[in-house]
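Most newcomers find our protein records easier to grasp once they have seen one. Each record describes a single protein and holds just a pair of labelled lines. A learned vocabulary of local backbone shapes supplies the integers on the structure line. Nothing more is needed to start thinking about how sequence determines fold. The record below serves as our worked example for the rest of this section.
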Amino acid sequence: MTALILEGGGMRGLFTAGALDAFLDADIKIPRCYGVSAGACNAISYYTGQRGRSRAVNVNYVNDKRYVSWENLLDGGSMFSEEMMFHTIPEKLLPFDYDKYRDVNPDSWAVCTSLLSGRAVYIRVPADLREEYRPILASMSLPLVSKPVRYKGDLLLDGGVADSIPAAKAIRDGADKLVIILTQHDGYQKQQEKLLPMYRVWYHDYPSFVRTASRRHIVYNQSLELIRQLEKEGKAIVIRPPRPVEISRVEKDVRKLNALYQEGYNAAFAKADAIREFLGE
């Protein structure tokens, strides 16, 4: 079984959006996916075959204060507007094909982090996203700038805190081949969270979550080491930016975002033949 792994990274997810559009153009289909944060959001348009939609959502609305702004944070507790992301855009501005997603019903998983336990929580993305989108909302709810999402008795935030690159999870679930899209360049090593003092203050009632955040860089770098080993063994193909990505998680420069999208497209399309061979097609 092959699994698709999609790292998050806020607006660095434009690289992933480009890579997935290249997959659509090359007719590369991977039915199981583990998406983290922006990766979980990008995955849904990949499975409906809506080429260009993930790019358009971010590029068209990144400077729209209804979509992302400090005003949203002050007024509603989250920088990214839930109403805009999961209602206004997909229902009116850039329609999402809810019926197609329901019919395809991909084996796609959103990775979240429990505020209560500090552990990674892996949730199968519901087939009917009109009725239930909270797993994706939770996966992309960045700490400090988002409200935790209540879901089945838990409080959930960004999956990247506990498991930024869920390759080990995919293997535990039975995957023997991985196609991994990263949003950091080769050689990148994560450092300890600079905002950890703020985590300790803001989440003082959730010590397990703070402990997980304090170890995020360790777990992340261990995941990179696992990926390197899988590449050597011929068990993984990795698509990553060719150079350091110099944009912020909430980047608003549309030219930079479009350039990153194109880098993702080019990097993935260049490996299309190798991926098809890897998949046994």
In short: Strands lie at 2-6, 32-36, 107-114, 120-124, 149-151, 154-158, 177-181, 236-239. The first helix runs from residue 13 to 25. The chain has one domain: 2-279. The chain has 14 helices and eight strands.
